[in-house]
Amino acid sequence: MKWLLCLMALGALTASAADISGNWKGTADxxxxxxxxxxxxxxxxxxxxxxxxxxxxxxxxxxxxxxxxDNVTFSxxxxxxGNEGRSLTRAK
Length: 92
What we know:
Oligomer: single chain
Structural class: mainly beta
Number of helices: 1
Number of strands: 7
Radius of gyration: 12 Å
Helix content: 10-25%
């Protein structure tokens, strides 16, 4: 799960918090291969919503998303071999 957090943080870090609405892509190399993830961010004031799709884990909804200046936080729930896990991403 650490690599997933790194992937999401990388995607969020490359975005400018003032205008992160739109589509973003990222990849991470893992022991199980390369994971590609697409983010669709929607910002309304300080609220961040959207979804993310991974070639390994499918689609997840962005939850508890907030944009505060240059700070971006959100969480997603993913299913890994039948086990659900929630990850929180904080980026500046």
